[in-house]
Amino acid sequence: MGGNKILDHELEDLNNLLHTCELQEIRWTGAYFSWTNKTIWSRIDRALTNAYWFETSDFTLTHYLTNGLSDHTPMLIDTLAHQSPNLNSNSVTCGLNKDHFADLRAQQDKGRRELSNIQQALQHDQRNKNLLQEEKTARDRYVSIFSSSISLIQQ
C-alpha cells in the first residue's frame, strides 16, 4: 500500500523457489503489513515451512506483533510442542532489578503498550496523519525511556 503495484512477473522467481522447495507460509495472526517506512506499507516478511516441519510440529502459528522501534514487524513462531528453557537467574541481580528498576520497567512496559496500541491502529488506517504523528511521539518517548535506563545502568 502506498508504493508501486507488484506485477506477477516480479514474483515469478520466488514462486518457482517456493514450488521447487515445497514451501508454504505458516498460518498467522496479527498485523497484516510486516514492513513500513510510514509511506509504504508492505507484507514482505513471512514464515515459511515444509511438509517435514508439519509432520514433526503439527500445529504452528506465526504471530505478527507490532513493529515497535523497527520498520519490520517481529514474528513470534508458536508451536504446541515448544518447551520453556529452564532459566536459572542470579538472585542478587533479580533483587537489584526489583528494588531499583521496578519503576523504570513499568515505564518501559507502559511506553511499549502505548506504541503498540498506536501501531495496531495504524495497521487499519495507514494514512491517518494524526496516528502517524502519535506514533512518532510515542516512539520518541519509548526511546527516551530506554536512554534513561542506559544512563542509570552506566552510573
TrEMBL record:
<dbReference type="InterPro" id="IPR036691">
    <property type="entry name" value="Endo/exonu/phosph_ase_sf"/>
</dbReference>
<protein>
    <submittedName>
        <fullName>Uncharacterized protein</fullName>
    </submittedName>
</protein>
